[in-house]
Specification:
ATPase_NBD, single chain, ROK, globular, binds zinc ion, ROK_cs, Nucleotidyltransferase, domain 5, ROK family protein
Length: about 300
């Protein structure tokens, strides 16, 4: 049986709009999960409350491990700007413009490294997940987080690429559809996120047939012949393929891995590659498009690996 060891364990958190997950991994070499816990974020109660929720989670982790870590990796939507130390482009409204890493370090008494959640998903799946298992020779991995928002991350040779402006992989805010009537949280119109996020897909379905339904149910209904559900999934697959073709034409990654709630929709893996092929140059596309395998904890694992 494994025991905690303050010299080698890696601690990671995924701070999302609805939940915060925390994990303790044995080590980067032996990434066995020693502890994991999820609590509600309650982000509608404001920034100070969210800081306190992270502290609550960390207290639980410390109680289990029996020690206080020296460092914590924390994933969240958006980008922490190195020059200013402020978080930008987050869809958790109360965190926008806040010095998140510094405030967490002060409140927790633990040095905190903040990373983008989709970057962490990609890192977690590359080092510990489906890429490590099935495509160990992959050099360029693009990861996509398709959930309440749409994020992306790029890992090259096992390392996150952050970019000159810290926004590498912000695939969700590529301009895709000028006819999209609903603005994105970022202030633009026609972003991939405003078309392919879970709320956007559910809204599209409701606009056709008048009945609100969760995405999982929409998928079931499409199989059963519901025409509005079929139209919703067709729209998903078409825009998904079109949007990814832009990425493939630029980066041509070795593997594309998809996580988040929408990643369970099977058509992304059956129809999706054909749509991508129809838009890429010369229509030749044989890159694996695969589902993430680390589940709800993938992002938290990646956050822990920020410290490795
Ligand atoms: Zn946007």
């Amino acid at each position: 049986m494994s025991t905690f060891n303050s010299n080698e364990n890696l601690w990671g958190c995924n701070l999302g709009n609805n939940t915060i997950e925390g994990v303790i991994l044995k080590s980067a070499r032996e990434p066995e999960t020693l502890f994991s816990l999820q609590i509600p974020t309650e982000s509608d109660l404001g920034y100070e409350h969210v800081l306190e929720r992270v502290k609550t989670l960390l207290n639980e982790m410390q109680a289990a491990a029996g020690y206080q870590p020296a460092r914590l990796g924390l994933a969240t939507p958006g980008t922490l700007v190195t020059r200013t130390g402020l978080l930008k482009n987050t869809n958790i409204a109360c965190l926008e413009g806040q010095p998140l890493a510094a405030d967490l370090a002060a409140r927790l008494g633990v040095q905190t490294t903040v990373g983008n959640d989709a970057n962490c998903l990609t890192l977690g799946e590359t080092r510990l997940g489906v890429v490590a298992e099935r495509f160990p020779d992959a050099k360029i991995v693009f990861g996509i987080l398709m959930d309440r928002g749409i994020g992306g991350g790029l890992v090259v040779n096992g390392q996150i690429v952050r970019g000159n402006n810290g926004i590498t992989g912000e695939w969700g805010h590529i301009y895709l559809n000028p006819a999209e009537p609903h603005p994105c949280f970022c202030g633009k119109r026609g972003c991939i996120e405003s078309i392919l996020s879970v709320p956007a897909l559910e809204r599209f379905y409701k606009e056709i047939c008048g009945t609100p339904r969760p995405l999982a149910e929409i998928e079931d209904r499409a199989e059963a012949g519901d025409s509005a559900a079929r139209a919703t999934l067709q729209r998903l697959t078409n825009f998904f393929g079109h949007a990814l073709s832009i990425l493939v034409n630029v980066l041509d990654p070795d593997v594309i891995v998809i996580g988040g709630q929408t990643s369970t929709i099977n058509r992304l893996y059956t129809d999706g590659p054909h749509v991508i092929a129809s838009y890429v140059i010369d229509h030749h596309f044989e890159t694996p498009v695969v589902q993430a395998k680390l589940g709800d904890l993938a992002v938290a694992y990646g956050a822990a690996l920020l410290l490795a």
